Amino acid sequence: MNDVLIIIPTYNEIENIDKIIKSIFDLYNGVNILVVDDNSPDHTSSKVIELQAIYKQQLYLQIRKGKSGLGPAYIHGFKWAIKKDYNFIFEMDADFSHDPRDIKVLYNKCKEGLADICIGSRYKEGINVVNWPLGRIALSLFASYYVRFFTGMNIKDPTSGFICYKRNVIEKINLDMIKFIGYAFQIEMKYKSYLSKFKILEIPIVFTDRKYGKSKLDASIINEAVFGVIYMRIKSFFSTDYYEK
Ligand SMILES: Nc1nc2c(ncn2[C@@H]2O[C@H](COP(=O)(O)OP(=O)(O)O)[C@@H](O)[C@H]2O)c(=O)[nH]1
Ligand SMILES: [Mg+2]
Q: What is d(CA 12, CA 216) in angstroms, rounded to the nearest whole number?
């Protein structure tokens, strides 16, 4: 798996970052990790720099000026990945909600040509969410129906942030036209891939709520998604520039 880059965006993940990096490298020899940190006040990046001494040529860090959301952090990471010629590019959270053991499953589907984008899906087979309050499950499930209704995409978990992309997907999407920053960013990436007719596959995963640190979800992220989905649908009618280079 030496053609794989796992991008982990971080904001105040000091309690998780070393554990997640170690557990990924313990499982997979060849993969590389890029942490995109928004200058976390808890010094998440210092921990990464410490670990770079152990994981030379395997662990990379990009520090951005300040907190600007998940979407811009990933766009930064995607551009970096394309420059460095990785073939399989992952989105993954730092907080162990995504099980590192599932990386291989998503990778294999893309490698075998069964998918251009493989999504780790909480809702592909039932509801596989552990320790989330009922309110958050309800919100997330509602988002799933809402997105399907407005976009017509047959994806059960459109806000999932555990994804393997083949390089050509990231190359084709017009990253400079990606507008959103939170859950809407996750929906936007999938919708644009769908409009470009890439093969999208969902694989059931178990999502576990974080044990350490705090979620960065807030009301503005929910608002952005509610209005963003309608915006995306309308924009998609007009021009392919909206989603393709
Ligand atoms: N660089 C960066 N990372 C972020 C930002 N917001 C969230 N993240 C990271 O994105 C991942 C998912 O965020 P999280 O708060 O766990 O979202 P939740 O799982 O939906 O509650 C975690 O690794 C966060 O540290 C941000 O503004 N900038
Ligand atoms: Mg989380």
A: 9
For the record, the structure tokens of 150 come out as: 């407005």
As given in the structure block, the two tokens for residue 161 are 């942030």
Q: 44-54 pLDDT, tens per residue?
A: 999 999 999 99
Domain spans in the chain, listed from the N-terminal domain onward: 4-242
Q: How would you class 234 by CB atoms within 10 Å of its CB: exposed for 0-12, middle for 13-18, buried for 19 or more?
A: exposed
CB 130 within 8 A of CB 184: no
pTM above 0.90, yes or no: yes
* 220-235: pLDDT as tens digits: 999 999 999 999 999 9
pLDDT digits (tens, 9 = 90+) for 185-209: 999 999 999 999 999 999 999 999 9
Using most ligand atoms within 8 A of CB, pick from 35, 45, 48, 70 the residue to mutate for ligand 1.
70
Best residue for ligand 1 mutational test, from 44, 186, 216 (most atoms within 8 Å of Cβ) = 216
CATH top-level class for 4-242? alpha beta
- How close is the Cα of 57 to the center of ligand 1, in Å? 25
Q: Would you tell me how many other CB atoms lie within 10 Å of the CB of residue 225?
A: 23
Instruction: Give pLDDT tens digits for 15-44.
Output: 999 999 999 999 998 999 999 999 999 999
Q: Is 128 left (phi over 0), alpha (psi -120 to 50) or beta?
A: beta
